[in-house]
């Protein structure tokens, strides 16, 4: 006899609680059904490795007759979970539990779905790959980079296409030119007090004035310590987008305890990323000093320092060198975060000290960086 709807809903809730609480709750909540058990096996294969769980004597993932191979686990999670969850699981597998086979196994690389989390994993583990696997990884990197570049390229070109002229309206409806205040004033007559809503019938927009820039020199200094992988990825793509713009000469320099000038590869962000060596210490002052040597016209130069501002050398030396740049007429912009989520983690004391000598420090997305650069090039 079919179960009642209420019984089915109750059963689903119990299944969810069982998945959440783990195997220890099975005696009270009952066993999992087929699909939920597959989800449990996939999650246990990964998170059963957690040292705290092992220390408490809980079941360790990957043991028993139902154990999965790495390719089998990859296949399972792609069948069981949405894309956002898949990316988190793959990222945790490599970065949290050190399962390098997720991105160093040729079979896995050829079947895996490209994503930014997998790109980060490849950059962390590419030194472990043999030539055949490295070629497969390069193809994955190229697919993800092209996706990011398509997204950023439009934003960069729009930011540099012209400045908003707040004195002149425009009939061209574009979100970036939306005039909120004028729209609000114009449409107040359409306020509906019963529904508590304002109906917009006549949106208003600013016009733009075409920019005519003198040649600017832009030097991107990218901290390549292990925690800065998101910044490295988006900086490489941003540099490639800026490279195509007239009026800007872009340099890209990566640094840890040494400095590597990657400008020759800036037009190919894939090749650039494959040359980056993540990890190591940080000598920001040394990188700033290198940038100073590249500058030809200080008044037409901008240094963009992408870092967490944890200086491994002398902080006083760093502050002094940045102050020299600013006194000579060069603008120094500091980026505490450059990933798509703009979730910064940086040394506030060093950042504040740099602000005190004239640098500008911010945490923003790549798209916001493009607009910020454009404004600085025009002011």
UniProtKB/TrEMBL annotation:
SMART domains according to UniProt: VWA
InterPro entries noted in UniProt: LolB (IPR050458), Uncharacterised_CoxE (IPR008912), VWF_A (IPR002035), vWFA_dom_sf (IPR036465)
Coiled-coil spans in chain: none
Residues in VWFA domain copies: 215-374
Organism: Intestinirhabdus alba
Name of protein: VWA domain-containing protein
């Amino acid at each position: 006899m079919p179960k009642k709807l209420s019984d089915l809903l109750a059963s689903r809730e119990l299944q969810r609680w069982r998945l959440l609480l783990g195997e220890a709750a099975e005696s009270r909540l009952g066993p999992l059904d087929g699909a939920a058990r597959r989800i449990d096996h996939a999650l246990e294969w990964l998170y059963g490795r957690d040292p705290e769980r092992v220390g408490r004597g809980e079941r360790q993932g990957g043991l028993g007759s139902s154990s999965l191979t790495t390719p089998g686990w990859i296949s399972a999670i792609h069948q069981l979970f949405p894309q956002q969850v898949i990316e988190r699981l793959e990222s945790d597998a490599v970065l949290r539990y050190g399962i390098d086979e997720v991105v160093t196994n040729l079979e896995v690389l050829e079947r895996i779905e490209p994503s930014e989390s997998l790109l980060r994993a490849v950059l962390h583990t590419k030194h472990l790959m043999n030539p055949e696997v490295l070629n497969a990884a390069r193809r994955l990197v190229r697919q993800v980079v092209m996706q990011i570049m398509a997204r950023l390229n439009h934003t960069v070109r729009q930011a540099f296409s012209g400045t908003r002229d707040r004195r002149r309206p425009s009939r061209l409806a574009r979100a970036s030119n939306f005039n909120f205040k004028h729209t609000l004033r114009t449409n107040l007559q359409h306020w509906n007090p019963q529904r508590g809503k304002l109906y917009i019938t006549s949106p208003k927009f600013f016009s733009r004035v075409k920019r005519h820039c003198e040649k600017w020199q832009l030097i991107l200094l990218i901290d390549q310590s292990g925690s800065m992988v998101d910044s490295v990825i988006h900086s490489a793509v941003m540099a490639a987008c800026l490279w195509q713009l007239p009026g800007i000469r872009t340099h890209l320099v990566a640094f840890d305890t040494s400095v590597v000038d990657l400008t020759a590869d800036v037009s190919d962000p894939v090749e650039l990323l494959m040359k980056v060596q993540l990890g190591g210490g940080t000598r920001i002052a040394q990188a700033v000093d290198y940038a100073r040597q590249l500058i030809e016209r200080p008044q037409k130069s901008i240094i963009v320092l992408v870092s967490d501002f944890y200086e491994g050398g002398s902080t006083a030396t760093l502050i002094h060198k940045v102050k020299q740049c600013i006194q000579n007429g060069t603008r120094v912009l500091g980026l505490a975060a450059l990933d798509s989520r703009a979730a910064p983690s940086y040394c506030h004391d060093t950042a504040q000290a740099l602000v005190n000598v004239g640098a500008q420090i911010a945490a923003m997305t790549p798209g916001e960086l493009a607009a910020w650069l454009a404004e600085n090039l025009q002011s």
